[in-house]
Amino acid sequence: MFNKITDKINSSFKKLRGNSVISSSNVEETLKEIRLSLLEADVNYKVVKELIDKISTIIIRKCFAILGICILILIIRLV
Question: DSSP labels for the chain?
């Protein structure tokens, strides 16, 4: 059973990595696939929701951090 979940989640991440540009819709699709994989494996709904929410929060924080670094680099180049 764990191998099946692992395979599905790995497949979801491979699809995400296969994109030349990662968009919010790509991320949402990956999270949806992970959510469905866990629910199909009878993981408690509340646990799945909490996990997906935490992953989403981490992704958003990372994106804002990267955006902040890019803006800082642009400002340094302009000065």
Answer: -HHHHHHHHHHHHHHHHTSSS--HHHHHHHHHHHHHHHHHTT--HHHHHHHHHHHHHHHHHHHHHHHHHHHHHHHHHH-
